[in-house]
Amino acid sequence: MPEKGLAVIRSLQAETSEARRLLQEEAPPLYRVQDPLEALSYTEKGGVLAPLEVWEMGRFLKAVHLLKEHLEELKGEYPLLQEMGRGLTAHLPLYREVINCVDEDGKVLDSASRELSGIRRRISQAENSLREALEAIIRSPATRKYLQDPIITNRGDRYVVPVKAEHRQHFKGIVHDRSASGATLFVEPLKTVELNNQIVKLKGDEEKEIQRLLISLSGKIARAAPLLKSSYYTYCGLDFILARGKLSHSHEGMEPALEAEGEIEIHAGRHPLIKKEDVVPIDVNIGGDFQSLIITGPNTGGKTVTLKTVGLFCLMAQSGLHVPAAPGTRLPVFESIFADIGDEQSIEQSLSTFSSHMDNIVSIIGSLTEKSLVLLDELGAGTDPVEGAALAKALLSYFYRRGAITLATSHYSELKLFAYSHPGMQNASVEFDVETLAPTFKLLMGVPGKSNALAIAARLGLAGEIIAEARSIQKKEDLRVEDLLSGLMKVQKDAEADREKTEQLRRDAETYLERARREAEETEGRKRQLLERAREEALTLVTRAKREVEEAYQELKKIKRDTAGAVPWERAKELKESLRREQEALYSRKEAWPPGRPLAPEELKPGQRVYINSLGRHGNILEINDEAGDVHLQVGILKIKTNPGDLCAEVEDEKGPETSKGEIQRMRSAKAKDVPLEIDLRGLTLSESMDRVEKYLDDSLLAGMERVRLIHGKGTGALRQGLQAYLDAHSQVAGFRLGEQGEGGSGVTVVTLKK
Prior knowledge:
The protein has 755 residues and is an alpha/beta fold. The chain has 19 helices and 23 strands. Helices cover 50% and strands 16% of the residues. The model is unreliable at 345-350, 589-594 and 653-660 (pLDDT under 50). The longest helix has 88 residues, at 476-563. 27% of the residues are buried.
């Protein structure tokens, strides 16, 4: 049933949204179970359940347990469903006892109790002994001649054999039955009476034990009945929520925005009972600038469907169901929804079409509030057109004054003009294609419908002179109104098309503007980052060179003192000053190194000529290693490795000519001063070692070194094996071996680098 509280309705809608998301990801285990309420109430009154009823109770307990377990393990945002799941009580001990006692056929199992198992074992033994005794009798030559057939049967829980009636005096035993002809007597031999008595007694004990077990189980179920009833109600509630989610998915529904008061705003609404491939979506807006909507147009054009769609949407939303519409759909919460749709005329009750409509409308007026939705089909129909139109105007004015939102359909032209001249009212129509003589079922807001009778008649071939005479008979005022409406509809259609085109252009422009803004921000940020990185690396190199020159300068000064000025140290002093000036220039040239256009990783390809920001040089791409996230390049005769973010498009005349062999040699010489011949990795983890070895090998390659040593120690050998596996896959490693005697033995790996 529809709810009236906004908070309750929003909660129901949120439940449906969660259910739909959950069903799209994984369907929860929800099994069909038999309603346990009657059985639970019976046990509470002291009743004992039959075995099959006990099994059904166990099946319910299993279903509750599986659903509760599933909801507890959900990953994602399902707070409402998980909160409901906490209201489920599984009663696992009771469930285990039930399935240990009864099977799905309603049979009480031997495992139900030791006593029952023992009784059934003794029954089986007694029956075997009895069967052996009877088989001995029917096989014995002394007694076989008295039997009608050598078989064992039973009568009234007693095992008997068929004896010929004429030999009754020769066969000792108790007669339990006779055949219809009287020729055969079913006799229990005296030798087996005691065994039969023992079996009958044991079966009685079996029934007593079964009854005791059922009484015990029924008592336990009765004590758990209040919680089991609550679990059943919760289970049904979850079933209903998941059904709402399933319906939403099948209807491609959405959660509408809900307000305590406001307007009905439906975008691309589809009547939920019309097939998706046949339904025509409609846009409806009412309750903002106007609260009464008069819909006109041809018969079978979709007017009544529009009324029903609006009414169903409001009822569905207030019942927690999603509505089949597009995002942006908004609905208010109504206290009541009234509808006068269809013809309820009745000969028996002396009701005409008009009378049946008036009877409904009188009932609506008696219950109307300002938070009501009123749907009126063919308002004022069934009586004189002049009186009917006047009554329709009066009713629309009354509903408007009472504050109700009203949708009405009509054929009266007077109502179209009435809506134009009356504040708070609006026209709408269903479109009709005169060329195809078929309705399009599209709702046009703000445009009244026009009569198409003469146009349809002409299209169907009615003589032109008859059409002309009909037009001359038609009132001039009616013709003026029809012409006005025709013009308005054309203007409305053109305006709607222009609006849709403009809206699409606006959306496209916003999309392009946002994309351009993001790209500009990313480019600027990347530019600043690359410039700063290049500047820092250059400053590091100059600072290191300056330090080295300073050390040489101090050494020369010392030599000068020792040799009384024999060494030309003034030249070193000049070199130091030149480096100082170059360092200051680097600080001041922060924006002076504009790289080319940054290249995205997907733009890079082998053989491409690019600009390397960190070196300030051009190079050619040799290989792109997507897994490692780096790029191998050829810079002159030097091979280096860097990351894709360090590369830009080729820059013309920015850094001068390509690196010469002499410059590369000087770069290698400068680098070689900082790169040691070996690196000590002892005490590091494999992960820590890999990071250091990777940088060390890159520096060694840049320095032009041919052979380096990795000191990893002997230990367990895990670090050695991991490093050698890494070296084996390294593209710039020509080979490696363990250290020889005097080189560190198995605690050192000697690596040969490619030239």
